[in-house]
Specification:
Length: 265
C-alpha cells in the first residue's frame, strides 16, 4: 500500500491522517461504540504496516470516534457471519502489526474498551486512558474465550490471577485500577485527554526513533514470547466455541439486552 496515496482518509469506518510526523488512525463507527469487523481490522493492519515505511513518520496514534474506544467484534445480525475465524485472524493481524511496528504506537481510550478492543489497546506501546474508560474481557459473557492474543497480553501485564479474574468473571476494570495493575501506562481526566495525548505523542515524534525501535523489540521479545502460541491456542479454542449453543445464546442475549441462560453446551 502506498500510504501517501491513501492519506488522508476522511470517510468510512477507518479514518487516517498524517501530520507533523504522526500517523493517526481512527476507528469511526461511533454508533456501535466502534464494534469492529474483519474488513475494518484488515484495513487498520495495512495502515499500521504502511505507516512504518512512510517517509517522515515518527509515531502512530490509534484512537476512536465517539464515546467508546471499541465494544468488541460486531455481533449484529448482518455482521454475525463475520464473528468467525476471519474476525479472529484480522484481530491477530492488527495486534501483530502494532507489536512489530518500529514506530512507537500510542492508543487513546476515552470510554468502553471491550473484547478484541482490549487486545488492540494493549498491543500499543503506551495506552492513555480517560478516567471514565474501562477495560472488559467480555468474552465469557457471550460464551466465548479471549482472543486477539489477550491471554498473553493481559497475563504479561497483570499476572495470572488478575488475568483469570478479568477473563472468567467479565468484570469492568476502570482506568485507575487498570493503571494500578499495570495494564495501561497513563490515566488522565476526560478534559485533559487530548492535550495530554498530544504532549506525549509530540515527545515521541521528536525522540530517538532508532532507539525506540530497538527498545520495542527488546521489551516485546522479553515479555511477549508466547504471543504467537497464544494466537494459535485462542484460534483453536474459539473456533469450537463459535459453533456452541452457549455462544448462540450469549450472542442472542447480548443483542436482546437480557441475561444469558447458558447450558454449558
Amino acid at each position: 500500500m502506498d500510504m501517501r496515496a491513501e492519506l488522508p482518509i476522511t470517510e468510512g469506518p477507518v479514518l487516517a491522517s498524517f501530520e507533523d510526523g504522526v500517523v493517526t488512525i481512527t476507528m469511526n463507527r461511533p454508533e456501535t461504540l466502534n464494534a469492529v469487523t474483519a474488513p475494518m481490522m484488515n484495513h487498520i493492519e495495512q495502515l499500521i504496516m504502511a505507516a512504518s515505511d512512510l517517509e517522515g513518520a515518527r509515531a502512530i496514534v490509534l484512537r476512536a470516534a465517539g464515546k467508546g474506544f471499541c465494544s468488541g467484534a460486531d455481533l449484529s445480525p448482518e455482521e454475525g457471519e463475520k464473528a468467525s475465524t476471519a474476525t479472529i485472524d484480522a484481530g491477530n493481524g492488527v495486534v501483530t502489526a502494532m507489536r512489530q511496528a518500529p514506530l512507537p504506537v500510542v492508543c487513546v481510550v476515552q470510554g468502553a474498551c471491550a473484547g478484541i478492543g482490549v487486545s488492540i489497546a494493549l498491543a500499543a506501546d503506551l495506552v492513555v486512558a480517560s478516567e471514565k474508560a474501562f477495560f472488559l474481557l467480555a468474552f465469557a459473557n457471550i460464551g466465548l474465550m479471549p482472543d486477539g492474543g489477550a491471554t498473553a497480553l493481559v497475563s504479561a501485564a497483570v499476572g495470572r490471577p488478575r488475568a483469570m479474574r478479568m477473563a472468567l468473571l467479565g468484570e469492568r476494570v476502570y482506568a485507575a485500577q487498570a493503571e494500578a495493575w499495570g495494564l495501561i501506562s497513563h490515566v488522565v481526566s476526560p478534559e485533559a485527554l487530548d492535550e495530554e495525548t498530544d504532549t506525549l505523542v509530540r515527545k515521541l515524534a521528536e525522540g530517538p526513533s532508532r532507539a525506540y525501535a530497538a527498545t520495542k523489540h527488546a521489551v516485546n521479545e522479553a515479555t511477549l514470547q508466547e504471543l504467537s502460541q497464544a494466537f494459535q491456542r485462542e484460534r483453536y479454542g474459539q473456533s469450537a466455541l463459535l459453533h456452541s449453543a452457549d455462544f448462540e445464546e450469549g450472542a442472542a442475549a447480548f443483542r436482546e439486552r437480557r441475561p444469558a441462560r447458558f447450558s454449558g453446551c
